[in-house]
Amino acid sequence: MSGSGAFAKDFDLDRFKRFGSVKAITTQDVPFGDALPDLFPQLEAWLNLDWKANKIKALNGKWPNLANLSLQGFSGSLSIFEGAPIKRLFLIASTIKDVEDILCFKEVEVLQISSCKIAGDVSVFSKLKKLRSLRIYGRLGKPKE
Q1: Is the pTM above the cut of 0.85?
Q2: Which of 37, 70, 74, 103 fits as disulfide partner to 94, beta carbons 3.0 to 4.6 Å?
Q3: pLDDT tens-digit readout, 61-84
Q4: What is the DSSP string of 12-62?
């Protein structure tokens, strides 16, 4: 779902719960915020093209089948997704204060990092025993303290 703007204040987001079979979603400028995990509980893949418009605080056991996660503009700790069985992680123009955050995804097989600011030594990715594909695009930079 992409577009510019927001839902009207009186719009009932619960209407999206009728789409119970949705397994993959792309979000951009249409903000769902923290309601997203409750609206699409069966999600297996999420491509979030604007973290500021669709940031969540924590999954807290929701999206137990989330295997594919792509985040653009993410900033913070990836621990909010801890517990999700992420197999494919794609970070675009994101800021990760500690590269070891990525290690919480024990099932990750494919890791792609594009134009991100990441603090730490990327050699820690060798601890990801199921990792079979690693792609780093652009220049990695250290986040500002």
Answers
A1: yes
A2: 74
A3: 899 999 999 999 999 899 999 889
A4: -GGGGGG-TT--EEEESSS--GGGHHHHSTT-SEEEES-TTTS--S--TT-
